[in-house]
């Protein structure tokens, strides 16, 4: 291929979601509904942590960071997806695609660092309760959260800088419903092996280190819980950790299926769109409900806020 005569791509066209005859409108309405639930659920956690001083603890600070990530993660592509459907088009400008790709992976990679911090926080709270307050101080918690955001930013910076400089001569059609690295590299020209290798190594290091740290934390937690003399305390401890494990299983399961592959040229992304939907829409929507549905502190904070509001606006 003669890359010297290649005209720089100005826009990409999405293949979009899998076609379901007669049900496209219902499918997009469902995505919009899930997006609203994601915004409301995660937004509620952020607001409650800010307003209620009793929730300004390491666990809830990490959860509020996770909620910010989930809102940002879904907002990078769902509004564009819905806008394209309403306007009966499926395109995105070149720079918009690169920006979408950057923020999508920035939030996605940062999420694994925050998930790891939550598991370590639970390990310290359950296995070392007497030392927990001195180890996980508010200053340490804030530094760890900031470090996670910076680590997520620098982890994907190289790919984001290199991908826009690749030639896109043969096709501008992306076999996906958002700008994912794999489908974009699949239509790119030039030498993409270094970019592929670097991206694969980053995903392996980030995902595997996060998963191993989380598993080790929960192994220690389970051993500690089993040694507790009280059955009630065991049930409470298991209840606290079970929600996190559900999220971890869904998150790691989907990312292993979609992203942990060394090359993209021979990958069929049509088969992975359903898994991508779960990873990008369902998991962020479920996170606030899974983490808080059995959490009495959050429930009490919400009811307290509602009571204050009702007292501030008495019925006429």
TrEMBL record:
Keyword Transmembrane helix: yes
Residue ranges of every copy of the G-protein coupled receptors family 1 profile domain listed in the record: 41-291
UniProt cross-references to Pfam families, sorted A to Z: 7tm_4 (PF13853)
Keyword vocabulary terms for this entry: Cell membrane, G-protein coupled receptor, Membrane, Olfaction, Receptor, Sensory transduction, Transducer, Transmembrane, Transmembrane helix
Membrane topology: Multi-pass membrane protein
Main localization category: membrane
One annotated Gene Ontology cellular component of this protein: plasma membrane
Compartments (UniProt record): Cell membrane
Keyword Membrane belongs to the record: yes
Source species, domain of life: Eukaryota
One of the record's GO molecular function terms: G protein-coupled receptor activity
Ranges annotated as spanning the membrane: 26-51, 60-82, 102-120, 132-158, 197-226, 238-260, 272-291
Sequence similarity: Belongs to the G-protein coupled receptor 1 family.
Protein name (record): Olfactory receptor
């Amino acid at each position: 291929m003669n890359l010297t005569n290649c005209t720089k791509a100005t826009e990409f066209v999405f293949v979009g979601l899998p076609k379901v005859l007669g049900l496209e409108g219902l499918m997009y309405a469902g995505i919009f509904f899930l997006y609203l639930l994601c915004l409301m659920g995660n937004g509620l956690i952020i607001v409650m942590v800010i307003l209620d001083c009793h929730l300004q603890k390491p666990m809830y600070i990490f959860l509020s960071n996770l909620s910010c990530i989930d809102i940002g993660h879904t907002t990078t592509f769902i509004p564009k997806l819905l806008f394209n459907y309403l306007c009966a088009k499926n395109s995105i400008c070149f720079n918009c695609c690169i920006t979408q790709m950057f923020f999508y992976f920035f939030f996605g990679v940062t999420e694994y660092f925050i998930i790891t911090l939550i598991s370590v926080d639970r390990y310290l709270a359950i296995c070392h309760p007497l030392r927990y307050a001195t180890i996980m101080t508010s200053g340490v918690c804030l530094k760890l959260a900031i470090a996670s955001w910076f680590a997520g930013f620098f982890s994907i910076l190289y790919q984001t800088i290199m991908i826009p400089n690749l030639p896109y001569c043969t096709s501008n059609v992306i076999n996906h419903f958002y700008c994912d690295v794999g489908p974009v590299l699949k239509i790119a020209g030039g030498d993409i092996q270094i970019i592929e290798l670097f991206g694969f190594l980053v995903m392996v290091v980030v995902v595997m280190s996060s998963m191993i740290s989380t598993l080790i934390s929960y192994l220690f937690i389970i051993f500690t819980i089993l040694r507790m003399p009280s059955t009630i305390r065991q049930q409470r401890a298991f209840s606290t950790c079970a929600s996190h494990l559900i999220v971890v299983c869904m998150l790691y399961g989907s990312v292993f299926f979609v992203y942990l592959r060394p090359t993209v040229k021979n990958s069929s992304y049509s088969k992975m769109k359903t898994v991508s939907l779960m990873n990008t829409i369902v998991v962020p929507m479920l996170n606030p409900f899974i983490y808080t549905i059995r959490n009495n502190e959050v429930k009490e904070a919400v009811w307290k806020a509602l009571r204050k509001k009702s007292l501030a606006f008495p019925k006429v």
